[in-house]
Amino acid sequence: MKRNRTQTPNTKEKLLQEALDLFYKQGYPNTGINQLLENSGVFRKSFYLHFSGKEELGIEYLKVQDKEYIGYMRNMMRRYPDANDFIPAWCRILIRKMKNKEFVGCPFANFTLQTLGQSKPFEDTVKEIMQRWKKEISVYFEKASYSGKSWKSKNPDELALKFLACYQGWVQLSMTMGDTKLLFQLSDELEQLVEPYYA
Question: Can you tell me whether residue 155 is helix, strand or coil?
């Protein structure tokens, strides 16, 4: 059903919320400005008051995903100072969201594969987000405990990189094989990866 196109004080927010849904679930290349306008009920003129074009909206989409997707993980890390509690809790959230069709893979990996070689601003934005994400994971593990044991390694950045590689691999495999159960394996693999770094 078509929505009425009306300009509101929250025009930018409406466009971003629509982009969050369409870019993530449908894909950036498969989503046109016309569909964004139609679904959000925003006038084309209003769109260009806030964004120079689809590329700028794509960059804003990535920044919002950083706040929301990675932000949820940040909240989980604050809630669970013991990594052996954090890992299964976070994986349970991913499994639940996948079952509810709310999780269709890492938004940054998906976006990068969809736009590979098309936009340096996209590449730079994703790289910046991923580097920051890796650093936050590194800081968390260095401060966290694991089943009451303390951090013993000298290289938290190494663990953070391995953690992200394991996460990306199992999530992408789960998506390509259409098997939610593989995310249960993700939790086991992450726990086996992390535990040796504590004593």
Answer: coil
DSSP state of 105: S
Burial of 173 (0-12, 13-18, 19+ CB in 10 A): middle
Cβ atoms of 122 and 167 closer than 8 Å: no
* CATH code, residues 1-51: 1.10.10.60
Residues 60-112 have pLDDT tens digits of 999 999 999 888 899 999 999 999 999 999 999 999 998 899 999 999 999 99
What CATH number does domain 53-197 carry, 1.10.357.10, 3.40.50.2000, 3.40.50.720, 1.10.287.3510? 1.10.357.10
